[in-house]
Amino acid sequence: MQNKNISEMVNVIVKYIKNNKKAVTSMACIAAIVITSCVVFARKPVYFESENTVYLEKPVVLSENKTVAAADLVPAYGVYINEELVAAVEDASDLDTLFEEVLASASKGYTNAEAKFINTPKTLKGLFDAEYVYSAEELKVKIEKEYSQYIEVRSYVTVEVSVPYKVITKYDSSKDEDYFKIKKEGKDGINKVTTETIYINGEKQSSSVFETETVKEPVNKVVVTGKTLKSGVGSGTFAWPSAYTHNIFSGFGYREDGYHGGIDINDNGMYGSDILAADSGTVITASYDEYGYGHHVEIDHGNGYVTRYAHCSDIYVSVGEKVSKGAVIAAVGSTGNSEAPHLHFEIIENGVRVDPTMFF
Ligand SMILES: [Zn+2]
C-alpha cells in the first residue's frame, strides 16, 4: 500500500515537473521528505542486534492505555508459560537453572517422580514495561504460585504382584467319575508392575501400567479327573457366589496396588455368610495361603473354567469333592491379604483370569 502510494506520488510529481518546470525545486523537496518518512515507517523496530534473536516487535506494556516513558522500557527477556507472559528478567542466563529448581520442588514428596512443564516455557527478548521486570527469585515464586497447573508430575511406583498359576485338568477315561488326583501342585509366579501416575497441582490425573517385569513364572497345577468330567460337568453359566449380597466393592483389572484378578463382593455384616459354588464341578483346591488368598477354594468345572473363592473364614469342602451349582462350599471371612470381610471371586477361563461380571 505504502509502495503504491509512493509510486503514485512520484508519477504525479514527474507529470507536474513536465508541465510546470518552475515548481521543480520545491516539489523535489516534498517528494524527498515523503519517500524518506515512508522508508522509516516501513522498517521493523529492532531492539536487539543479533541475527538469531527472536525479538518482540512491540514493547510489552502492562496496559495498552498506559503511557510508558521510553526510560521505563527495559530491554529484557519475557518468560511465557502456555503463551502467557509470567514476567521478564534482565538476565536470562540462569533461567534453565531456575526452571529446574521449580520442577524439582514440584516433584518433592512424590515417589520416584519427575516434573515437567506441559508446554516448554518460551523466552522472548524485547522491551518491557519496567513493572514486568522481576528478579529471578520473584519470577520463581510467581511460577510456583500461579503457574503450577502447567506443570505435571509423573510418579513411578513398582509393586510385586502375584501371578496365579493355571490349572490344567487331564481326563483319565479308565477311571470312574469320583477319581481325582493332583499330579503336580501349582505355584504362583511374581511380576513386578510399575505404575505411572500423573499429577497436576497435587491431583491425580491418570494412572496406567508403565512396565511389567516377570520375576518368577508361575508353575501350572496339573490335576487328573475321571471320565465324567471329560464332557464337562459345568453348565457353562454361573450363579452368583454370595448368598448375602450382590454388592461389588472392587472390580476387576488394574488398581493402585496392582492387578486385581477378580471381584471383591462386600457388604456390611457379611462375615460368615454362605459362599456358593458358581457352577457344578470338582474341588481342586481347599487350602490356606497366609499372604495371599487366605483360606480359599478352587472348583474345576470340567469345561475349561475354574472358579476361585478367597479370604474365607471356613471351608466346608475338600479336594476331590464333587459339588453342584449353588452348593454352600465356604463362609465369608478376611483371611490372607484382606482388610475387611469380603469374598474375592475369580473366574479362570482356560487358565486366564477374566472379568467375572461378564457372566452375570
Ligand atoms: Zn480381591
So what's the overall shape? rod-shaped
Which CATH top level class of the largest domain fits?
Answer: Mainly Beta
Helical coverage, percent range? 10-25%
The CATH topology of the largest domain turns out to be Glucose Permease (Domain IIA)
- β-strand percent reads 35-45%
State the CATH architecture of the largest domain. Answer: Distorted Sandwich
- Tally of alpha and pi helices: 4
- Work out the number of β strands: 23
Alpha-carbon distance between the two ends: 75 Å
Bound molecules: zinc ion
Structural domains: how many? 3
Assigned CATH superfamily of the largest domain: Glucose Permease (Domain IIA)
Radius of gyration: 39 Å
How would you describe the oligomerization state of the chains in this entry? Answer: single chain
Describe, in plain words, how this protein is organized in 3D:
The protein folds into three domains: 2-42; 70-146, no CATH class; 164-359, Glucose Permease (Domain IIA). Helix content is 17%, strand content 39%. It contains four helices and 23 strands. Strands 11, 14, 16, 17, 18, 20, 22 and 23 form an eight-stranded antiparallel sheet that branches. A four-stranded antiparallel sheet has the order 3-5-8-9. Strand 12 (253-255) and strand 13 (258-260) form a beta hairpin. The structure holds zinc ion (ZN). Residues 260, 262, 264, 344 line the site of zinc ion.
